[in-house]
Amino acid sequence: MIITSLTPHVLNRHAARALGILDACWRGLAAQGDVPLWSRVDPADIQDALDHAFLAERYGQSHARIRVAGGSVAEMTGGDCAGLPLSLMFRPEDRPAFNEALRTACDSRCPIELDLSVAKQDVAARMVLYPLRAESGRITQLLGGLAPIGETVAAPCRFGLVAIRATTPPVMAPARRSHLRLVVNNA
Question: Cross-referenced Pfam families, in alphabetical order (predicted)?
């Protein structure tokens, strides 16, 4: 008789589902007209994904600092990562490519997906970054998700980049223009 644990399988399914929840939330808010305001992201809407989610604040053209991160993200990075540059999750040789991908996400206003490697695993995790804007219209925040794939990722780890994909934004609703109508009252 062979006994295997379903725990890793269930955790991986939950992690993949968490990234789907983040995607659905961002696309739902973006369908209302533009890149979502960061203030419109309600933690209650992504409650089942919070463990794999993080919020990062953009500084400079291609850098971001983690403001808050879920338990799974903190575990993979080796502890509390609030305040740390997002690029510290990556090996030094992969940081320039990551920073360029982050800049592209903010400038193109489109989400990006990253396949990440650790040691000998080809793809060990998947990261998603969704741009969020401030009231001024500038992209100042990023909603992100980080989920392991396959075997458990030993913590702490520095990821390598395997692939970067820009995803298509949802069709943005056209801005509504008010329609004025001339009413003449000759009474």
Answer: PAS_5 (PF07310)
CATH for 142: 3.30.450.20
The string over 98-137, giving b where at least 16 C-beta atoms fall within 10 Å of a residue's C-beta and e elsewhere, is bbebbbbbbeeebbbbbbbbbeebeebbbbbbbbbbeeee
Q: What is the mean pLDDT of the chain?
A: 83
> What is the extent of the structural domain holding 46?
7-166
Residue type present at position 154: A
What total number of domains does the chain contain? 1
Closest to 99 in 3D by CA, of 90, 165, 125: 90
Q: Is residue 52 situated within a structural domain?
A: yes
Structural domain includes residue 115: yes
**Residue 184, in any domain of the structure:** no
Q: Which of 71-75, 77-81, 112-116 is predicted least confidently?
A: 77-81
Structure confidence by residue, pLDDT tens digits, 9-58:
455 567 889 999 999 999 999 887 789 999 999 999 999 999 999 999 99
Asked if 159 and 89 count as a contact pair (C-beta separation under 8 A), the reply is yes
Phi–psi pair at 10, nearest 5 degrees: -65, -40
- Cα(121)–Cα(93) distance, integer angstroms: 17
pTM to 2 decimals? 0.81
The answer to whether position 64 is within a domain reads yes
